[in-house]
């Protein structure tokens, strides 16, 4: 399964990359903003997306664009768990096991072609 990482903090992106590779995911790229995510979106099956990026574009906007443009499954990654109403959301900091569990669930949903709605944000 091919994974796009959308995270503007390089250290966190590299940790996610290492965890995902160890779990058998192929990394299609790391994007720090919406334009980079859209450039790389066609190559991925799922994406893990930081809810709040430094450029002011939020993860939900990117998730909607990736979902509508490429059909990507989405896992949100955030320090504010109150924003996520989705079993595939991950709260920072997260254990490698929690990251892999969420990615695996998104990958399973992508493989079975189930279309899940994107989570609601408060």
TrEMBL record:
Keywords: Phosphoprotein. The keyword Phosphoprotein applies. GO terms for biological process: phosphorelay signal transduction system. PROSITE patterns: RESPONSE_REGULATORY. Residues 2-122 form the Response regulatory domain. The modification 4-aspartylphosphate is found at residue 50. This is Response regulator. It comes from Rhizobium sophorae.
């Amino acid at each position: 399964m091919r994974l796009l990482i959308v995270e503007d903090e390089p250290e966190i992106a590299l940790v996610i990359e290492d965890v995902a590779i160890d779990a058998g995911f192929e990394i299609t790229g790391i994007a720090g903003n919406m334009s980079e995510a859209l450039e790389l979106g066609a190559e991925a099956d799922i994406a893990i997306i930081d809810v709040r990026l430094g450029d002011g574009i939020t993860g939900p906007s990117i998730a909607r664009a990736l979902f509508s443009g490429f059909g990507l499954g989405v896992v949100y990654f955030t320090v504010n768990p109150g924003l996520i109403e989705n079993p595939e959301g991950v709260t920072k900091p997260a254990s490698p096991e929690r990251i892999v569990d969420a990615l695996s669930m998104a990958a399973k949903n992508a493989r079975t072609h189930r279309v899940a709605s994107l989570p609601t944000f408060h």
